[in-house]
UniProtKB/TrEMBL annotation:
Protein family according to the UniProt entry: Belongs to the disease resistance NB-LRR family.
Domain Disease resistance R13L4/SHOC-2-like LRR: 347-678
Every Disease resistance protein winged helix domain range: 197-267
Name under which the protein is recorded: P-loop containing nucleoside triphosphate hydrolase, leucine-rich repeat domain superfamily
Record keywords: Hydrolase, Leucine-rich repeat, Nucleotide-binding, Plant defense, Repeat
SUPFAM superfamilies cross-referenced by the UniProt entry: L domain-like, P-loop containing nucleoside triphosphate hydrolases
Organism field: Helianthus annuus (Common sunflower)
Length: 746
């Protein structure tokens, strides 16, 4: 069942979202078969653990109708599956790192350099340690990092001669990883062991894990001076585990984290008998287990969790953690999970020691009043549930520190006595219907940090924004809508945005740009809305009515700002110096009709855009000239609906590999392919003036193109036409794998 659900949750069959009809495994089979019939494909299945021939046969069934030449590549820790299927001659053992590469990787993480030239006394010990790691990168990195602060021979000799190397290898735990765990401080060992509650491939959020550690009391033992210090200590501990490779960043989402399977095995191995992860395997023996010893329990959400499955937990009187987890992505399609109401009404009241309760993602419309009997509860997560209200008895949870209501999109209000929760420190009300006025009222709680998503300015003078001063601790992402109503920049100043720890900020004015809009006032308001530069990762400015931007937009002090989007600012005549943002990776500019030239004002002084990877311009109707310096790391460039842009004088785009041009002049295309020699994908649509002569010059420059898509370019009659030997031109396109030419009348 887990194998099937993982296949479904990770399927994006035709480059889009998972469709409703594809959530069923059989229907997904049919869709894949229909799509792949008489086609060749390459399928890569990475890190396959299932050893069931039935799973394999079920997976490959849709591929029997494909064309000859199709391939499936599988990476797996064991070869037993391929042997059972009769593919003995088709598998290849991947070699580990060579001795030289392994030593170089280890030195890099232990010494910060790739060799031992400056640490010759450590080299013999390093070579011995590397040999024991058997060329496994994770082991080399983890052990190397653990020795980063130890430059004495005794420490390195101690690792090399440790008795741990001699222990029998059990439960797939590599000795090098045991050694790296052994080097952790006692608090770090406990925090890492707690992560044994997470199933393999579970994606987790840094802040949420820190809040869990706090709720369990783990951080209070090392930072007894208060919640703020606890939280900071939690962040420091998390970063330490991350730097030592116990955690890794999720491959497709930089904001989330994951444990390598081997690290997950290690956490399970070192976790004491107090931890229990309920899964399909352990669930078979749960009735035989002595549950009274367990303190922490997690289980994976399923389509329906019956009372009978968890009933035995009634005997776990000392249970502190009841944590629902999920493997895979729920969004962008929402899968429904159901929990027996009996678990809420009958089981939970029998667990009086609970400190952590997560019911996230279940179809729960209400909580029973008995929730108020869980007096020790510190952490309550009801996110992504259709709950309509919270029972008044929730206000009896006087020890509650964290309440997560994110995505409860039917929740309109909080209980009357909510202010009784004196110890509440973290409240997440993103994507709820709770009113701004109600949130203002509960902001009186002294230590409360609120994470919310949207503030609508409704009054004619926009004075509500000034009331944000009462939110001493706003965190996360916030969208402020209706800024055109703010009639005095002082109101924006009083909001005190510079002191709010926001990671994402969206500032929105009305898209109706009538004469009553005061451009000087709007610039003054925007100037006063400067956020704290310490945390901001994403900034969006929409429909701002000024002609230019205040100095803080593009200020290099925003060290962590990665994504900027400016759209609908129709009166703007120049862009801010966004090139000075050191971490900016993605920039979107749309609908700035008044901008005629893009150049030095965007780049600023010195090296510009050192980190920019994705750049897009949309609907820039008045844009005529583009000049500037090198984009050293730009990989994707899109220009859409900019028909007046004719003059492009850029120096170089050495890393550009993906170029899209829609409704632009042919001169732009010609100039861009000249300065971007590494383009591998070109997608053009309705390029003005693109005839055979111009196209001939373009095709000459496309030596590395692998994918070519041409639409609505009706003046082109030939892909390649030249007086020279056509084979000499075609050899320049030797990497071209796909040509898509769609003819259509303009």
């Amino acid at each position: 069942m887990m194998f099937k659900s993982r296949i479904i949750s990770n399927s994006r069959p035709f480059g889009g979202e998972v469709k409703e009809e594809h959530k069923n495994f059989n229907k997904l089979h049919e869709a894949l078969r229909d799509h792949l019939t008489r086609k060749r494909f390459l399928l890569v299945l990475d890190d396959v653990w299932s050893e069931s021939p039935e799973d394999w046969e079920g997976l490959v069934k849709p591929f029997y109708t494909c064309s000859p030449g199709s391939k499936i590549i599988v990476t797996a820790p064991k070869d037993i599956l391929l042997k059972e299927l009769g593919y003995n001659s088709l598998y290849k053992h991947l070699e580990f790192l060579s001795d030289d590469d392994a030593l170089s990787l280890f030195a890099l993480h232990a010494l910060g350099v790739r060799n031992f030239d400056s640490h010759l006394s450590l080299k013999p010990h390093g070579e011995g340690i590397v040999k024991k790691c058997d060329g496994l990168p994770l082991a080399l990195i983890a052990l190397g990092t653990s020795l980063k602060t130890k430059k004495d021979e005794d420490s390195w000799k101690g690792v090399l001669e440790s008795e741990i190397w001699k222990l029998p290898v059990e439960d797939k735990i590599i000795p090098a990883l045991r050694l790296s765990y052994h080097d952790l401080s006692a608090p770090l060992k406990r925090l890492f062991a707690y992560c044994s509650l997470f199933p393999k491939d579970f994606l987790f959020d840094k802040e949420d894990l820190v809040l869990l550690w706090m709720a369990e009391g783990f951080l209070q033992q090392v930072t007894p001076n208060g919640s703020t210090e606890e939280q900071q200590s939690g962040h420091d501990f998390f970063d330490e585990l991350l730097s030592r490779s116990f955690f890794q960043r999720a491959p497709n989402n930089e904001s989330l984290f994951v444990m390598h399977d081997l690290m997950n095995d290690l956490a399970t191995s070192v976790a004491t008998e107090f931890y229990f992860r309920l899964d399909n395997e352990s669930g078979k023996n749960i009735k035989k287990m002595k549950l009274d010893k367990y303190r922490h329990m997690s289980f994976v959400r399923e389509e329906y969790v019956a009372y009978e499955k968890l009933k035995v937990l009634e005997n776990a009187k000392c249970l502190r953690t009841f944590l629902a987890t999920f493997v895979g992505e729920v969004e962008p399609w929402r899968k429904k999970f159901y929990l027996s109401n009996q678990i809420l009404t009958d089981l939970l009241p029998k667990l009086p020691s609970l400190r952590v309760l997560s019911l996230s993602g279940f179809e729960i419309s209400e909580l029973p009043e008995s929730i108020g009997t869980l007096r020790h509860l510190r952490y309550l997560n009801l996110s992504q549930t259709p709950i309509t209200h919270l029972p008044e008895k929730v206000c009896n949870l006087v020890n509650l520190q964290t309440l997560i209501l994110f995505g409860c999109d039917e929740l309109t209000e909080l209980p009357n006595n909510f202010l009784n929760l004196k110890n509440l420190q973290h409240l997440d009300v993103r994507d709820t219907l709770i009113s701004f006025q109600m949130l203002l009222e509960i902001s009186k709680l002294k230590s409360l940090q609120i994470t919310l998503s949207k503030i609508d300015i409704e009054s004619e003078r926009g004075i509500e924004i000034a009331k944000l001063k009462d939110f001493k601790n706003i965190y996360g992402k916030i969208s402020v809508v209706g800024l055109e109503k703010v009639q005095n920049a002082t109101y924006a100043h009083e909001a005190n945005f510079s002191q709010k720890k926001l990671s994402e900020l969206e500032l929105v004015w009305s898209d109706e740009l009538h004469d009553s809009r005061n451009e000087m006032l709007e610039k003054a308001v925007l100037n006063e809305l400067k956020p704290c530069d310490d945390k901001l990762i994403q900034l969006q400015i929409r429909s701002y009515g000024g002609k230019n931007f205040p100095n803080w937009v593009g200020d290099p002090s925003f060290l962590h700002l990665k994504h900027v989007s400016i759209s609908g600012c129709k009166r703007c005549t120049s862009l801010p110096p966004l090139g000075q943002l050191p971490s900016l990776k993605k920039l979107d500019i749309e609908g700035l009709y008044g901008v005629e030239a893009v150049g030095s004002e965007l780049f600023g002084t010195g090296q510009a855009f050192p980190s920019l990877e994705i750049l897009s311009f949309y609907d820039m109707r008045g844009w005529e000239k583009w000049s500037g310096a090198v984009f050293p790391r730009l990989q994707q460039l899109g220009i859409y609906g900019c028909p007046d842009l004719v003059e492009v004088t850029l120096e170089a785009m050495p890393s550009l590999n993906d170029l899209e041009l829609y409704k632009c002049d042919s001169g732009v295309l010609r100039r861009l392919v000249e300065v971007a020699s590494a383009v591998t994908k070109l997608d053009i649509f309705h390029i003005l003036g693109l005839n055979d002569e111009v196209w001939g010059g373009v095709i000459e420059s496309l030596g590395g193109v692998e994918e070519l898509r041409i639409r609505r370019c009706n003046e082109i009659r030939y892909l390649v036409k030249s007086d020279a030997d056509p084979s000499k031109i075609l050899v320049k396109l030797r990497r071209l794998r796909r040509r898509i030419i769609v003819e259509a009348t303009s």
